[in-house]
Fold MarR family transcriptional regulator.
Amino acid sequence: MSKTTTIALAPSATLFARLLATVDRLLMKSAEISNRNGDLPRPGF
């Protein structure tokens, strides 16, 4: 019998997923600032 054990770890987030999450955070921050200033959102963004 083997005395070693393997543990299955969840894969870390891919680079693309991390990039999309960063872009999403930036867009949400921009929307919060626009909302605070009373600006209307630009169509298509």
